[in-house]
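Researcher: I've been going back and forth with a colleague about how HD-like signal output (HDOD) domain, no enzymatic activity might be arranged in three dimensions. Neither of us has a model we trust, so I'd like an independent prediction. The organism is Pseudomonas guineae, in case that matters for your notes. Sequence below.
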Amino acid sequence: MATKCHGLQSWIDRFNQAELPALASVVQDLHRLTLGDKSSVQQLADVLLRDAALTAKVLRIGNSVYYNPSQEAIRTISRAIVLIGFDNVRQIGLSVSLIDGLLARSSRDQLAELLARSFHAAVQARNIAGYVLAKNDEEVFIAALLHNVGELAFWGCAGDAADELASALAQPGAQEDDVVMQVLGTSFRQLSLALVKSWNLGDTVSLAHQSTSQNDPAVKAVILGAKISQAALDGWDTPAMEALVGQLASFIGVTLEEAMQQVLASAEETVKMAATFGVSQLCKLIPNTDPEQIRLQQEQRKARLLQPNLLVLQQALQDLGLMVSRRADLGLVLDTLFKGLHEGAGLERIMLMVLSDGQSCFRAKRVTGEGTESWAHDFILPVSQFEQPHIFSYALRNKEALWMGVPASYNLNELVTQPIRQRLGQGMFFVAPLLAGTREIGLLYADGRVSGRALKHEQFVAFQRFTQLTGRCLEAMSKKA
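Model: Here is an independent structure prediction for HD-like signal output (HDOD) domain, no enzymatic activity. You can compare it with whatever you and your colleague have in mind.
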């Protein structure tokens, strides 16, 4: 386990020495290259060819309709540079390195959301720069992409500290800057500036964090792109977005209507680019320009901030207790169970798995929470796997409620198999056997993966209580004459 970091230098040392040296090397090398002479073309090819996976992805993206509408086949990096341009190939290489290098390390929602916002900011900034700069708009793209590099590195690599920060930020009334300073011992802005300096990423990236430099056109394009991508998360018709569109119109010399169309067109272009890069999870996080999709995205963002509701929790527990004696029908029992766990206890994703096919496998019976729709149709897991036993069979066999991801359960981590991680993601979760008396019904699963917040003791206590009461309801139903 990594030594706990606190303070700016501690985090910089960790990222550079333990977590991100390979990524830092590629980013530095790609950023340092300029099209000054022919040697730079070969140097760019050499940097990309060091990594076969990176080379393959750059070639695939270079062959896409977005970058290569003529569809002339590109089979080498040198050919890509000739056909789609040095700057485009360098930009693709740097973007792929950053996105893949971080997403491979963490499945956190905070990381994916920030990567999507950074990608959106980069496209907005580059297109703004096209109005005011004769060249270097690609530098503006990279500067905007790396504007929050410190925060990106933290959510991608910080492990337990990221859990701690996510949990602290989720508390009612939490002030983000204060909480970040308390947990990290530094700010995300200071962390980004220090990484920019450490990785030697150039003036534009660095100056974008300094208020004294905001009259520089390139810097102003980066800052406007970053602010637009942030404001867009709350919708396109907010006062904040209206003010930014006004600044944009004045900066690039167009009408308010034209500026708004430019902003929306850049958002649509970002989605196309993200799809071209093969990161569909980012596409879904870039604010949509369709009014109905905007509404749905805003609802999903609210869901990520789901908070426990003690009144709902207590009422659901009381209702389930009454259902034991009244022998209520199954639908009502499950409705109450899921409402109590989701809205009451604040558990974000919940699944009831039942034994089926002669008790040979677990199948999803009911699910709730963002991103769980597919579970209802195709979540199937064999009960007995002698070559690879898993945590769900262990919980049922031992009739034990488990809180995975805390020290008390570390000795069972190997039972959280790769197929389970791939399907449900990384991080904490609860699992408990559902029993009707002595009869095994299945399992109840819950996590907080939507927001990435750490689970709490109070939630585990509620989870256990709901599981027990539901089992008693099912036992009463089985005895019903």
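Researcher: What would you highlight for our discussion?
Model: I'd start with this: Strands lie at 349-356, 361-368, 380-382, 402-404, 429-436, 439-447. After that, consider the following. The domain at 320-478 is CATH 3.30.450.40 (Beta-Lactamase).
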